[in-house]
């Protein structure tokens, strides 16, 4: 399917522009070209940042009700063009049409929450008379926008994760420059179209398409860009922290999420939830279930049910309603996942389901007998692979779950409140889902992790806190 989008243009400081150098956007299912977009240059990024300086002033002066109105209108535009957005996500990325529709629904919600949270940017009064000698002083603090935000977004949620950057930035009165994933720029450009329709002043928003290796450093290092909001891989995230300099950094860098299943759990519910959590978006999901620790007494029963359900997961054409999972984003990633599987089996792991690759597709794969120190158990797979481990106790499961340098989210299945509370307090993660898999999130909650999973929190209200600073005001009454 050939998509037409703004005549192959990018959104630079509120204007649609094209460039001679183009980037091919390919459907990962069959590698067909579905569109081309401009390959921005360093000079483009410099211009964009200069324009954003004026945009930041305009954004800061926008009354709250105007910010709210603009974001609501953008959300309405997405809703009115729902099918176009969903089809774009499915065509340029790795999601099935069913998964793409859910992402569009979430993006609409993200924008609507952003509009509501704009009215809740508040300060507090300060009791200066708590300090002897300050009896005649009174005051408060309020939050003000930091200025220009640089946002770098990944391919796996090409619309909603962009909305998670733009919505809070505009709600809090900032200008924002978005560098979307090179593989999936079309959804971000459609969202720019939504904000243009909504009446966002020029220069407040840019969506710059291009190669990160060519334009990324300029965005990251320019001192006028006061915050970098990055969602992506750990290696790139660490490189950004070394280059960024003295500015705010918010990062979500993925995980290899654990789930614990105790012997008193609802087994069928645990199986259904963890199979879904392992293979959503072909496992290309930062919350994807990667490691499942099952109490030994029920391990064999759990494994049998889990493997059987996995074998019924349908891999195929993304636009077919009956398809459960589609391809990986490109063949390089598919080969990488295949290699991880082969390396694990060479060291003794057993394939209970899947394990094969065809082009960009990797079968939903279940591994057992995996060495806990193998890379596949220590790193983020970002593919449709899950590992099952028997454990002797909750203490052992928690220790194993914590024995990696990631900590985004975890899940535990149990009917024992004391066991659940123990896991909640001892698991080294940013969120614990009780009687659900790690793969659950609503867009209003604080979202982020510990250890190698990143810095700061997303979730609209919490992103707004990151995107604003506090200013203290003190009056002397003498």
Account of the protein in words:
This protein is α/β, with parallel strands linked by helices and 478 residues long. The protein folds into 2 domains: 10-254 and 453-473, Aldehyde Dehydrogenase, Chain A, domain 1 (3-Layer(aba) Sandwich), CATH 3.40.605; 257-443, Aldehyde Dehydrogenase, Chain A, domain 2 (3-Layer(aba) Sandwich). The chain has helices at residues 42-61, 64-80, 82-92, 97-118, 160-171, 186-197, 212-221, 234-243, 267-279, 296-310, 331-346, 375-378, 394-402, 417-426, 460-466; strands at residues 10-12, 15-17, 22-26, 33-38, 124-126, 137-145, 148-152, 175-179, 205-207, 225-231, 248-252, 257-261, 289-295, 350-353, 357-358, 361-362, 365-368, 385-391, 409-413, 431-434, 454-455, 468-476. A 7-stranded mixed beta sheet has the order 14-17-18-13-12-19-20, sandwiched between helices. Strands 9-8-7-10-11-21 form a 6-stranded mixed beta sheet, with helices on both faces. The protein has a 3-stranded antiparallel beta sheet with strand order 5-6-22. Helix 2 (64-80) packs antiparallel against helix 4, helix 5 crosses helix 15 and helix 9 packs across helix 10 (296-310). The model is unreliable at 1-6 (pLDDT under 50). Keywords: Oxidoreductase. One of its GO terms (molecular function) is lactaldehyde dehydrogenase (NAD+) activity. Residues 16-473 form the Aldehyde dehydrogenase domain.
Summary keywords:
single chain, about 475 residues, alpha/beta, Aldehyde Dehydrogenase, Chain A, domain 1, Aldehyde Dehydrogenase, Chain A, domain 2, 7-stranded mixed sheet, 6-stranded mixed sheet, 15 helices, about 40% helix, disordered N terminus, ALDH-related_metabolic_enz, Aldehyde dehydrogenase, lactaldehyde dehydrogenase (NAD+) activity
């Amino acid at each position: 399917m050939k998509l037409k989008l703004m005549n192959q243009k990018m959104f630079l400081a509120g204007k649609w522009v094209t460039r001679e150098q183009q980037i091919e956007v390919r459907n990962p299912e069959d590698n067909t070209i579905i569109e081309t977009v401009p390959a921005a240059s360093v000079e483009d990024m410099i211009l964009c940042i200069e324009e954003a300086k004026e945009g930041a002033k305009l954004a800061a002066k926008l009354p709250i009700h105007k910010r709210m109105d603009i974001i609501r209108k953008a959300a309405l535009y997405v809703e009115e063009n729902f099918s176009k957005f969903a089809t774009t996500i499915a065509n340029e990325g790795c999601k099935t049409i069913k998964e793409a529709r859910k992402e569009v629904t979430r993006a609409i919600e993200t924008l609507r929450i952003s509009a509501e949270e704009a009215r809740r940017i508040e300060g507090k009064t300060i009791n200066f008379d708590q300090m002897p000698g300050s009896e005649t002083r009174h005051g408060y603090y309020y939050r003000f926008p930091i200025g220009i935000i640089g946002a770098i977004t990944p391919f796996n949620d090409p619309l909603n994760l962009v909305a998670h950057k733009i919505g809070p930035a505009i709600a809090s009165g900032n200008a924002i420059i978005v560098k979307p994933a090179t593989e999936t720029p079309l959804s971000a450009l459609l969202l720019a179209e939504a904000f243009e329709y909504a009446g966002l002043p020029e220069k407040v928003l840019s969506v710059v398409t291009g190669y990160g290796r060519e334009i990324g450093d300029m965005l990251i290092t320019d001192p006028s860009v006061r915050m970098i909001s990055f969602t992506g891989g750990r290696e790139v995230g660490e490189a950004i922290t070394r280059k960024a300099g003295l500015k705010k950094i918010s990062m979500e860098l993925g995980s290899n999420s654990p789930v614990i299943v105790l012997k008193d759990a609802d087994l069928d519910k645990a199986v259904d939830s963890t199979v879904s959590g392992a293979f959503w978006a072909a496992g290309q999901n930062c919350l994807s279930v990667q490691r499942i620790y099952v109490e030994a007494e029920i391990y064999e029963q759990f494994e049998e049910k889990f493997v059987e359900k996995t074998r019924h997961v349908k891999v195929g054409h993304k636009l077919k309603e009956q398809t459960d999972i589609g391809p990986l984003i490109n063949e390089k990633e598919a080969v990488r996942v295949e290699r991880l599987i082969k390396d694990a089996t060479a060291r003794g792991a057993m394939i209970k389901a899947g394990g094969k690759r065809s082009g960009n597709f990797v079968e939903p794969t279940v591994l057992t007998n995996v060495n806990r120190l193998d890379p596949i158990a220590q790193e983020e797979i970002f593919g449709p692979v899950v590992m099952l481990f028997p454990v002797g106790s909750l203490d052992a499961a928690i220790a194993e779950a914590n024995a990696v340098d990631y900590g985004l989210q975890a899940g535990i299945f149990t009917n024992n409140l004391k066991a659940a509370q123990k896991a909640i307090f001892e698991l080294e993660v940013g969120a614990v889902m009780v009687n659900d898999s790690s793969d659950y999130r609503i867009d209003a909650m604080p979202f982020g992790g510990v250890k190698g999973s990143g810095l700061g929190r997303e979730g609209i209200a919490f992103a707004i806190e990151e995107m604003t600073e506090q200013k203290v005001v003190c009056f002397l009454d003498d």
